[in-house]
């Protein structure tokens, strides 16, 4: 909203109003405001949750320090959601299709998580929202996001190609006047097809329409939307699994958010996209404002969520931040980098799948179930081995930083 106000003021040549045209300024402001909101208002919300007796009900799993967490307020994800949405509404272009998509995903998954937490805490239903309703909700946001990103006319990419390039359906030449040194032998094509990036490959672009054949360009959504649904479910559940130690999911998500901010900025910047030889995505620069608010919200929430935690994010936060990361990566055509960038989430998910699968398999074969890990998800395995909670979290963060660096390096490592 402030963007439109200052844009109006700039039309009257009011000094300083034009600064809102700069993505760097608005992103910085979004980061600062999200930090202020989460830190200043977080304590008040924690107090309200305590008064409402929205305390965590801890199952006795024999883990060190577990009983001390009993009664710690949960649903703290509301702090994260507020610290994301308010700066986004203030500093982003609200007519931008990518911003609209991210707001929808944030609110939708936040509501699903809120209902789950509310049923657990207020209604004393330890199972919360039934799993099938969670899946239906995640599928719903996947369908909406997938349809918006596939069919909306403003969702397009520019790719640099030779002038002899044979245009396909949905592609057209666009001017290269934005280049500092235009080359007559090179032109840009504009396409609305969902082209994505394959990491570690030289010619690293593939179009989802390819899977249906060259003459099926209008049916690519049959591939794209199910992929979006799968990614949203996988990453949001991965974030949910990771949220088992103080600050683990929050800090890991902040690291992922910083990497996504870098990827979004270079993809939406003509010169950087040209230099790094990546797809130029018009209008995606507004995503940098959103992800800056996301990073600020996560870091601000760590003020209260780091060990020993004064509040837990609950499903309200974990489902939302996982969904945000998934949808954001899809929007900037980097969804195939998710297994690397979100490697911590992936390992946590896989540890549970392997543990359950191996237990059932060995029980069926021998009559006695065996385990791969002392306990799943993986962070509990290390707790069982005697590592302190804070040390486990710090080491997982270090792994997350390493994976984030590798992800960014893929821009040139092919």
Write a structural description.
With 414 residues, the chain is mainly alpha-helical. The protein has helices spanning 2-10, 23-51, 77-91, 97-121, 131-151, 221-242, 248-268, 270-276, 286-305, 314-331, 338-341, 343-366, 378-384, 389-409, and strands at residues 157-162, 171-174, 186-191, 195-197, 205-207. It has a three-stranded antiparallel beta sheet with strand order 1-3-2, with no helix packed on it. It has a two-stranded antiparallel sheet with strand order 4-5. Helix 2 packs antiparallel against helix 3, helix 4 runs antiparallel to helix 5 (131-151) and helix 6 packs across helix 12 (343-366). It is globular and about 70 Å long.
Keywords:
3-stranded antiparallel β-sheet, 5% strand, 414 residues, 14 helices, mainly alpha, single chain, two-stranded antiparallel sheet
Task: Give the mean pLDDT.
Answer: 85
Total strands: the figure is 5
Low-confidence stretches: 162-167, 169-173, 175-187
Strand ordering within the main sheet:
1-3-2
SSE class:
mainly alpha
């Amino acid at each position: 909203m402030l963007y439109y106000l200052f844009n109006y003021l700039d039309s009257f040549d009011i000094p300083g109003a034009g600064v809102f045209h700069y993505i760097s300024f608005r992103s910085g402001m979004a980061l600062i405001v999200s930090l202020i909101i989460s830190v200043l208002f977080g304590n008040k919300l924690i107090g309200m949750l305590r008064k409402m007796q929205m305390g965590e009900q801890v199952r006795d799993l024999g883990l060190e320090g577990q009983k001390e967490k009993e009664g710690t307020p949960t649903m703290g994800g509301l702090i994260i959601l507020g610290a994301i949405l308010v700066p986004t509404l203030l500093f982003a272009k609200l007519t931008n299709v990518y911003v609209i998509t991210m707001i929808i995903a944030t609110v939708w998954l936040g509501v699903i998580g809120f209902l789950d937490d509310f049923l657990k805490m207020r209604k004393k239903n330890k199972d919360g929202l039934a799993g099938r309703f969670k899946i239906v909700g995640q599928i719903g946001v996947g369908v909406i996001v997938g349809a918006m990103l596939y069919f909306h006319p403003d969702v397009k990419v520019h790719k640099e190609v030779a002038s002899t390039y044979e245009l396909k359906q949905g592609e057209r030449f666009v001017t290269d006047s934005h280049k500092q040194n235009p080359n007559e032998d090179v032109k840009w094509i504009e396409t609305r097809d969902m082209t994505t990036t394959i990491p570690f490959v030289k010619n690293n672009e593939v179009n989802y329409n390819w899977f249906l054949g060259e003459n099926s360009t209008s049916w690519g959504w049959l591939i794209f939307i199910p992929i979006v649904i799968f990614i949203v479910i996988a990453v949001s559940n991965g974030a949910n699994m990771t949220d088992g130690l103080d600050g683990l999911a929050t800090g890991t998500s902040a690291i992922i958010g910083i990497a996504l901010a870098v990827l979004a900025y270079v993809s939406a910047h003509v010169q950087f996209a040209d230099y790094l030889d990546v797809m130029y995505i018009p209008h995606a620069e507004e995503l940098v404002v959103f992800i800056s608010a996301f990073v600020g919200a996560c870091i601000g929430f760590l003020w209260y969520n780091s060990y020993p935690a004064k509040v837990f994010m609950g499903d309200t936060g974990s489902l939302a931040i996982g969904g945000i990361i998934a949808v954001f990566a899809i929007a900037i055509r980097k969804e195939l980098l998710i297994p690397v960038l979100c490697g911590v989430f992936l390992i946590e998910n896989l540890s549970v799948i392997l543990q359950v699968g191996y237990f059932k398999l060995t029980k069926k074969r021998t009559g006695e179930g065996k385990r791969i890990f002392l306990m799943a998800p993986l962070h509990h395995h290390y707790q069982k081995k005697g590592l302190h909670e804070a040390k486990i979290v710090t080491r997982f963060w270090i792994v997350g930083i390493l994976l984030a660096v590798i992800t960014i390096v893929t821009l040139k490592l092919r």
